[in-house]
Amino acid sequence: MGTSSAPLASWPWENLGSYKYLLYGPLLAKAVASRAWESGSPDHWCFHLLLLFGLRAATYHFWAMFSNMFWLIRRRLIVRDGADFDQIDKEWHWDNFLILQFWLAAMALYAFPSLRHLPLWDARGAAVAILVHVAATEPLFYLLHRAFHRGHLFSSYHSLHHSVKVLQPPTAGFATPLEHLATGGLMALPVAAACAAGHGSAALLFGYTLAFDFLRAMTHCNVEVFPGRLFRAVPAARYIIGTPTYHSIHHMNKDSNFCLFMPLFDALGGTLNDKSWEVQKKNSAGSNDVPGFVFLVHVVDVMASMHSQMLSRSYASRPYSATPATVLLWPVALAFVPVLWAWSKTFVYSFYRLQGRLCQTWIVPRYGFQYFLPFAQDGINSQIELAILRANKMGVKVISLAALNKNEALNGGGALFVKRHPGLRVRVVHGNTLTAAVILREIPEGTAEVFLTGATSKLGRAIALYLCRKGVRVMMLTASEERFKKVQEEAAAEAQQHLVRVTKYQSAQHCKTWIVGKWLSPREQLWAPAGTHFHQFVVPPIIRFRRDCTYGKLAAMRLPAHVQGLGTCEYTLDRGVVHACHAGGVVHFLEGYEHHEVGAIDVDRIDVVWEAALRHGLSPA
C-alpha cells in the first residue's frame, strides 16, 4: 500500500491481509475473560474501547452505504463516476488506521489509569474541547495538510491519498501511517486538553471521536448533502462547514481547500477556491445524467441480495459466493424480504461508462422464487412495465431485460410490453440473440451430434435451428410433439432431418455434448457418458455433480477494457464479465439498432450480433 520505502509509508501488518483483525485479539480476549461488559468489572474500560472502535468502523461503513445508494443520491453525485475495481483494491485495507489508533488508545489508558474512570458527562469538558478544536486542531491540520502537499512529503506519503479518482468514505482512511499518526494526534488534542483541565468525560471521548469520524466520512462521500439555500440564508456558515463538494475540489485542484472541517482557515491562508460555493450550489441542486443504456435485473435469492455495493463494495467487487459472514447475516437479509416485496419501484443498482456514455443497472425488488408464483406475476410485469415507461420518459435508448424479467411464460420475452405500448422510443431488448451466439461458439468445430434440453424454449429453438443448418444432429428433449414439429417446420427442408425428437435422457447416453436449457438433477446427469461437457443456459446453473464431466458457466462476455467506473461483479461472474443478455443489450445500444429485440430469436441475426460484439471490443469470457 505504501508509495515508497520512506519510513512510516507502509503498514507493518501489510502482509497479514484480513488476518490483521487478529491484532484486536489480545484486548478482546482480556475483555471476554474478565466479563468487561459488566459495570463492576475492573477491565470495563476494555469494553468501552472495543465499543468505541466498533462504532467508528460502523460510522464509515454507513456513510459508504449511503454513498452507494445510487437510487437515492444519483442526482447529487459530485464526481459522476463509480469507484472502479482498481480503487476498491487500493482501498481494501482502508481501516488500518483504526487498528493503529486502537492500540495507541489502549497504551494511553495503560499509561494513565485515571482515564479509565472518567465521569459520564461534564459540560465544561465539551466547551474546552470545542475551543481547542477551533483554536488548535483546525489551524494545525491546515498547516500540516499544506506541508504534506510539498516535495518529499507529497511524493512519499500524501500522493497515495490523491491517487484515487472518486472520493468515498473509505478514502478518508486511505493514507500512510505517518499521516494517520499526525491526524490521530490532532484528533486526540481536544479530548486530551479537556482531561488535562480536569473536565474529561466518557461522553466527550465517544462524542468528539465519533463526530470527527462522521465529518471525515461525510466530506469524502462524493454526495452533496447540504442544500445551497443554507449558505445563501446564512453566509457565515460557508466558513464554518466544509461540504463534500468543498473537499472534492481539493482533490481536483490540489492547491486549494486544505481545511479539515472549517473553510475559515483556507480563507485566512489565501487558499480558498473561489468557485467552491458556486459548484456547491450546482451540486446541491442536482442534475439528471440520463443513461443511454439500462440493464434491468432482479434479486436472485436472499443470500445473493447481500452481494451489493450498497451493503459492501468489497464483497460486491468479487464474484458472488456464500461466505461465513453472509451465512451469519442471512437472518438479517431475510427480515428485509417483506420490505423488498412491498417496494413498488425499480431503483438504480450500479453504473459504468462505456465510450464515455452512461450505462446503468436498475433492479426490480423481487426475488427469483416470486417469478414462479402465479399470483405474483401480474405485479412483477407491472413493475417491469413501469421501469420501461420510466426509461422511455427519461430518454433512455435501450433497456435490456435480465434473466427472469424476460421469462417466456411471464411476458413472452418482453413482447407483452412492446405490444401494449407500440409508440415506445426506448428499445426493449432480451439480449438472447447474443446469448445464443455465445453458447454456439462454445461448441467445438466438427461436433456431429448434440443433446439439447429446454429444446423448444426461446434459446433452445434458436440453437437447434442454427445447428441443424450446419448439419449437426440435434436430439431435442421434449414431451410435446406439437412444439417439436413447430420448430422442425421452421428449418429448411434439407435440414429438418437433423432435428430428432427424444423423450428420455437415456437417448443421449452416448452423446458427449449436452446443451442444458432445463435444470438437470444429479440423477439425470448420470445418463451422460464420461467426458461429457455440459453447456448451459439454465437459471440457476445445474449442480456440478459429475467429476468425470466438465461444466460450462452461464453464457457471458467480457466488457471492453475502456469501461470506466465498473466496481461490481455480476452475480458469480468474474470482474468485467457480464451475462450475455447484458452484453446483447450493450451491442444493441452501441450499434444504434432501431428494432425491439423481443419474442422469438431471429436466427439469421445470430452471426450479425456476434460480429458486432467483437467489433465493439467485447470478447468471449
Automatic annotation (TrEMBL):
Residues 131-271 form the Fatty acid hydroxylase domain. One of its GO terms (biological process) is lipid biosynthetic process. One of its GO terms (molecular function) is iron ion binding. It catalyses: a long-chain fatty aldehyde + 2 NADPH + O2 + H(+) = a long-chain alkane + formate + 2 NADP(+) + H2O. It is found in: Endoplasmic reticulum membrane. Residues 450-620 form the Very-long-chain aldehyde decarbonylase CER1-like C-terminal domain. It is an enzyme of class 4 (lyase). InterPro entries: CER1-like_C, Fatty_acid_hydroxylase, NAD(P)-bd_dom_sf, Sterol_Desaturase_Related. It holds the Pfam family CER1-like_C. Its main location: endoplasmic reticulum. Keywords: Endoplasmic reticulum, Lyase, Membrane, NADP, Transmembrane, Transmembrane helix. It is a multi-pass membrane protein. Its EC number is 4.1.99.5. It comes from the Eukaryota. The chain crosses the membrane at residues 47-73, 94-113, 328-348. One of its GO terms (cellular component) is endoplasmic reticulum membrane. Belongs to the sterol desaturase family. This is aldehyde oxygenase (deformylating). It comes from Eragrostis curvula (weeping love grass).
